[in-house]
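agent: user wants the full assembly modeled, not chains individually. Plan: 1) parse entity lines 2) check alphabet per entity 3) run joint structure prediction 4) return tokens. Steps 1-2 passed, two entities, 398 residues total. Proceeding.
--- entities ---
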Amino acid sequence: MSDAQDHKQKMQQQQAEQRAKVSELRDPEKGLVLVHTGNGKGKSSSAFGVVIRALGWKQKVGVVQFIKGKWITGERQFFDRLGEVTWHTMGEGFTWDTQDRDRDIAAAEAAFAKARDMMASGDYDLVVMDEINIALRYDYLKVEDVITGLEGRAKGTTAVLTGRDAKPELCDYADLVTEMTEVKHPFHSGIKAQRGVDF
Amino acid sequence: MSDAQDHKQKMQQQQAEQRAKVSELRDPEKGLVLVHTGNGKGKSSSAFGVVIRALGWKQKVGVVQFIKGKWITGERQFFDRLGEVTWHTMGEGFTWDTQDRDRDIAAAEAAFAKARDMMASGDYDLVVMDEINIALRYDYLKVEDVITGLEGRAKGTTAVLTGRDAKPELCDYADLVTEMTEVKHPFHSGIKAQRGVDF
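--- prediction returned ---
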């Protein structure tokens, strides 16, 4: 078989597989639980990429940011300006700005209550809980409460939970877990964090 | 030391580290080369998350999509509607729609020429080459040509290259390589690809 024939055959096979996949794409019934974890970059940014996709399909989106309260980020400025996303930021900002564990816990619980209500309402196609894994890691939230909240979400609502060190119980519950692994990182080679890329 | 004191001390240390990091955040000089690869989800969506961050900081962004030509995606619809991103999609669509290797190569080369011109122009803070690794994997593009194009980019231009099976030469050249690893995938447990999440 010539290279060209071989190529054509491979492409035909991929086309058939792709078509089979596309033909399955019309099921909006079930909402998924997605976890983005790992020590690499891309956990939050890929969640915001998913937000963009959802908005492109005219879906309704809510975002609750845990931890990153007071820091000005590009994503926050963008979505504020866009005005299409219900956005809630945990009131106390970075936990290391408060240095008060009880306040941190109260702030995390209030933020999760907001996310839980959005998930249960049936009004949202997508609810992002950005950096919630950090709140879980510090035991500001109980993993069983988060799972109960996810379990109570409306049928068509997809939830995305981000942050390193995702709890094993949460990963067990999730439909999809993606680990972002740092293979090579510019901070390690003396390059500074940059606006637009890192925050 | 009490738990509360211990917590406070940890938080103070993190606060100091965070401040040191934030104080370094004002260097817009150097553009980075970022590669998102691996067999997991989030390679393209995190690139679009980076686009959002850049737009939030009023940066200028260009996107060239390789391979995913004709497929209607949420990101494409969103950015078309937004009208703030210079967008170019490789003309021939999915390579397995053409089944003609020469046309695929010509389309990939034309798409990369577009990306190279944007990178060299100095007009863009960020240029995303989405799924370019697929074009490299099929030898539609030469990795040395892509590296030459990256090398010729303007000083402040960051480039993001996505797609599985990134070439080792490209990873060596890049400042940052993130591997997205599929830990648990819904297609494997019988859940269909979904609008807004997967495309």
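agent: reporting back. The first helix of chain B runs from residue 3 to 23. Residues 28-189 of chain B form a domain with the Rossmann fold fold (CATH 3.40.50.300).
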